[in-house]
Amino acid sequence: MRMISLDQEHISQARQWVNRLIQDDALLYKQLDEAAFEGAFWRSLPQARRHTALLETEEGRIAGLASGVSMPLAGKAYISFIAVDAPLRRQGWGTRLLSWLEEELTSQPEGQPEKLEIVFFNPANLTWIIPGTAGHDHPNAPGVDVASGAYLFFKNRGYRDFAMQNAYYLPLGQYEYPAALAQRLAVLSQRGIEITYYDPKAHQGLAELMDALGNEDWRQRVLENVHRPDGGDPLLVVVHQGRVAGFTGPLAVQPSGRGYFAGIGIHPDYRGLGAGKALFAALCRGLKQQGAGYMTLFTGENNPARNIYEAAGFKIVRVWADMRKEG
Fold first, then answer.
1. How many angstroms separate the CA atoms of 9 and 19, rounded?
2. Theoretical Cys-Cys bridge with 67: which of 52, 154, 191, 214, CB 3.0 to 4.6 Å?
3. For residues 322 and 157, is the Cβ–Cβ distance under 8 A?
């Protein structure tokens, strides 16, 4: 048995091995086509370097894989995936692969990260299937599935939880706007607050809202969308006297039928009025009208936004741990 770095010669065999492992172990991950495999384990990105090792038997058969991403200039490193064949488990091979990967990720000449993380910010995005559905998927695994053997594997090797992510799911086929929110909308209307689609000619203050929310990822996604030459995908907003006080979207339907949105945020001055729940319900209805069959999202265990999702009928279908090992 030996460890070798993934190279062009072994890509096809390695992909077949990962897909067989997903099937045999009933892992949540979606089967990987060539593009998905190379995107997760082979191709490097600007300022991000992939490190992937294979465990190979004397007969030349793949029996394990470990992969991660280093971002030396940012001082960050991520574990993406590690597994070995079932007959080789509890014999130290997984630990050896992990040790190799940790050494690779923490010994970059451009800079050494202070910690290794397993989180949803990992550039290696692995799509996973919502249990009990007809292939409904989510485009990124937000950590370690706490119901999997990997969770205890990392726990026993010095990795510690620093957050729990609840994965939520809602089929949209029978979705109806919650009747209880009709009264809330009436109260908001009495205050001069409405929920509508963003119109740059009629609404002001979208950039200022993004300043108040302080989420750069939202800022980039939302402002790039509205500045597209075609006007971008629809954006739902909370509006008061012509000024934007909240947003959700942009609304888009992915090829899988999943309703996509970048996030939801309410200006601090307008929180506590129920606008967030009403806005999110409008999002669910809007995505259904666009043809989305379902929605998925994840949020932290202690994030108050979960109240918004649960009020709309979302259910927790999986719990993921964000894990970290200090350097």
1. 18
2. 52
3. no
